[in-house]
């Protein structure tokens, strides 16, 4: 029995940060092996059971965490879009456009971000497109991906327009469409995958093309 005058110990506060970090790493591992399987075997032939086995988790965990194959693909695409930097690429893009960079420097940085995310995003988006013919979920996801990218490019175009940087005769909507075209996975596939361009060549092509189309 504790003496009446003994000090009362404060209850230990539970720190869930370690558990969250372990869960984050486990999910990242599952997405990595799922991405490898999808790109190697295709969408239709890759099963949730195969992903679970390769990732060292249960099938139930895959469904609870990602919602099956469409959810896995969506999570892979979003992880690729975030890029490899310490902060998500879209956040870094907004920070750049909100700063004092002159228009050419801003377009150069946006081209660099495209170089960063395309190696992972483009193959997955093209995989989704190839699966659309037979899978309605993939058709829906492709519409979602394209709509999100178009919205992002229009947002960037408005940033340029607000600065008064757009070339005379180019509307904000047209500028968004131009940026949407230059960031298409097809362009990466043709030049980098097909023609074996380096990422630096690809990024420079995007930069010079956007400058020519958008700026005076």
Features:
216 residues, mainly alpha, Arc Repressor Mutant, subunit A, Tetracycline Repressor, domain 2, 2 domains, 73% helix
Describe the structure.
This protein is an all-alpha fold and 216 residues long. It has two domains: 18-67, Homeodomain-like (Arc Repressor Mutant, subunit A, Orthogonal Bundle); 68-214, Tetracycline Repressor, domain 2 (Orthogonal Bundle), CATH 1.10.357. Helices cover 73% and strands 0% of the residues. The protein has helices spanning 17-41, 48-55, 59-66, 69-82, 89-98, 103-131, 136-162, 172-182, 185-194, 199-214. Helix 5 (89-98) runs antiparallel to helix 6 (103-131) and helix 6 (103-131) packs across helix 10. The protein is globular and about 80 Å long.
Mind sketching the topology for me?
Layout: H1 17-41, H2 48-55, H3 59-66, H4 69-82, H5 89-98, H6 103-131, H7 136-162, H8 172-182, H9 185-194, H10 199-214
Helix pairs in contact: 1-2, 1-4, 2-3, 4-6, 5-6, 5-7, 6-7, 6-9, 6-10, 7-8, 8-10
CATH class of the largest domain: Mainly Alpha
What structural class is derived from the secondary structure elements?
A: mainly alpha
Helix share, percent: over 70%
Written as H for each helix and E for each strand, in order along the chain, the element string is HHHHHHHHHH
Cα distance spanning the termini: 84 Å
Tertiary shape: globular
* CATH architect. name of the largest domain: Orthogonal Bundle
How many domains, as an integer?
2
Mean pLDDT: 93
Low-confidence stretches: none
Looking at the structure, the CATH topology of the largest domain is: Tetracycline Repressor, domain 2
Number of helices: 10
The gyration radius over C-alpha positions equals 22 Å
Let me know the CATH homologous superfamily of the largest domain: Tetracycline Repressor, domain 2
Task: Count every beta strand, where a strand is a DSSP E run of 2 or more residues.
Answer: 0
The main pleated sheet reads as: none
Tell me the β content.
under 5%
């Amino acid at each position: 029995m504790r003496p009446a005058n003994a000090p009362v110990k404060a209850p230990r506060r539970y720190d869930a940060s370690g558990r969250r970090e372990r869960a984050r790493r486990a999910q990242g591992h599952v997405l990595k092996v799922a991405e490898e399987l999808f790109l190697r075997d295709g969408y239709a032939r890759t099963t949730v059971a195969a992903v679970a086995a390769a990732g060292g988790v249960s099938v139930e965990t895959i469904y609870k965490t990602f919602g099956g194959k469409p959810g896995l693909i969506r999570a892979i695409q979003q992880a690729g879009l975030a890029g490899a930097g310490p902060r998500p690429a879209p956040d870094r893009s907004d920070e750049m456009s909100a700063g004092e960079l002159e228009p050419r420097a801003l377009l150069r940085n946006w081209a660099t971000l495209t170089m960063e995310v395309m190696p992972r995003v483009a193959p997955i988006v093209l995989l989704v497109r190839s699966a659309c013919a037979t899978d309605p979920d993939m058709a829906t996801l492709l519409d979602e991906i394209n709509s999100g990218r178009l919205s992002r490019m229009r947002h960037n175009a408005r940033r340029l327009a607000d600065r008064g940087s757009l070339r005379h005769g180019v509307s904000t909507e047209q500028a968004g469409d131009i940026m949407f075209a230059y960031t298409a996975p097809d362009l990466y596939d043709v030049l980098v995958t097909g023609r074996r361009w380096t990422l630096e060549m690809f990024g420079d092509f995007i930069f010079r093309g956007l400058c020519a189309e958008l700026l005076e």
